[in-house]
Amino acid sequence: MLTAVPLPTARCDRPDGDFDWRGAMYWAPLLGLALGATAAGVLYVLGHLLRADELLGAVLAIGWLALLTRGFHLDGLADLADGLGSRRPAGAALDVMKRSDLGPIGAVTLIFVLLLQVAALTGAQADGRATSALLTAGLTSRLALTWICRPGVPPARAEGLGAHVAGIVHPWLAAALSVAAAAFALWLGAIFVIALLAGLASGELVCRLAVRRLGGITGDVLGAAAEVAFTTALVVAALR
Fold first, then answer.
1. Shortest CA distance to 134 belongs to which of 148, 145, 118, 146?
2. Which of 44-48, 105-109, 210-214 shows the lowest per-residue confidence on average (mean pLDDT)?
3. Cα within 13 Å of Cα(98), Cβ side
4. 159-163 contacts: CB < 8 A, separation 24 or more?
5. Residue 1, pLDDT above cutoff 80
6. 88: exposed, middle or buried (Cβ count in 10 Å: 0-12, 13-18, 19+)
7. Half-sphere exposure of 38 (CA within 13 A, CB side)
């Protein structure tokens, strides 16, 4: 379910023994909402109960989200940055992305994105919008993945996560989930609808760049899209 939290395989597997990838992508937006809620809980405990500084609360809340996902979305972001930054052909770029080491472009990208997330969340706390911003950003980050897995978006490799999820989500269901997400964001406030749309657009840009440069999507592309969508939504939600 796109987190480090294990689930009983009997509930996740299909009758043929394979994992229910389509179900995971359909449930992804709700899981993103839940992740945002847990991060908001961390902020509440630190800010209201322990009277911690806003910056400290933002750092620990973002760190909590990385812990719940075991950092593999951030890892995907760094790997994609290294692959695209190598400016090599698709095959060679994919090989760069498969390496376990972290290149300078990936490191700079990670630092920049995490600083953006912490800064945006700190600003949202100052305006009393942190909870709504986290809920919106979490929802947006996983809804972006649901859209990326629509038909017409090919996998970059014949194996791996990208090959399992490419093209499995029906566009009409993705649209229905988006309408529900927009209604929820509107209930939070108009700025959060804008944050949702901006986040989805940024995730789509990551997808299109990957398809153009790599020939399709991989697990790293999905992770990168989730982090970029989350960051964009969080930044927009924090704007005054």
1. 118
2. 44-48
3. 13
4. 160/218, 160/219, 161/218, 161/219, 161/222, 162/216, 162/217, 162/218, 162/219, 162/221, 162/222
5. no
6. middle
7. 14
